[in-house]
Amino acid sequence: MAKFDPKETNDIKGVVGNVVFTHWKNTPVIRSKPIKSTKPPTPQQLFQRAKMNAVMDFLRPYRQVVNQFFDAPSPTTTLHNIANSYYLTEALTLEDTTISIALDKVILSKGGIRSLEDVAISLPEEDQLQLTWNYTPNEAGTQPDDELYVALYAPQAAAGV
Predict the structure, then answer these.
(1) Alpha-carbon dihedral 93, 95, 98, 103, rounded to 10 degrees
(2) Comparing C-alpha atoms, which of 37, 31, 36 is closest to residue 14?
(3) What is the distance between the alpha carbons of residues 119 and 63, in angstroms, rounded to a whole number?
(4) pLDDT band at 12 (very low <50, low <70, confident <90, very high)
(5) Labelling 84: which of 7, 28, 49, 78 has CA 20 to 30 A away?
(6) What is the pLDDT averaged over residues 94-98?
(7) What is the pTM of this model?
(8) How many of the other CB atoms lie within 10 Å of CB of 99?
(9) Burial degree of 50 (CB within 10 A; 0-12, 13-18, 19+)
(10) Is 70 helix (H, G, I), strand (E, B) or coil?
């Protein structure tokens, strides 16, 4: 892979022969075109792909939150990639051939924000969810303009159940 100056190349994008002109994290790069393998994937490769698919399927609905709040920004890695790494190493549950996300290890944001206190969730009517918590203004770590993101996980909905 090589870097190039977009001023001198007029911000080229696309494929020329086996060379790809593209951008990575807003940096123009030139790389060789990937070659599709003719060998069938090994069982270990298929298992790794299944793990990655489980993580990506789980994170997809939360991508906007993860891309903003998962960790401190890095000049070389996106927050989504940092989240992928965390889930692959820390939050996957593997039982035989079953791959799932350990819900007690789910993290969608990191930082110094206070956790909710005295949380209660109820279902007052069908298709409604009521979330209440104790908010104490002016305590350390709270601001009147704080935003709350609520993430719901229903794996049956994704499976069409």
Answers:
(1) -30
(2) 31
(3) 25
(4) confident
(5) 28
(6) 85
(7) 0.66
(8) 16
(9) middle
(10) coil
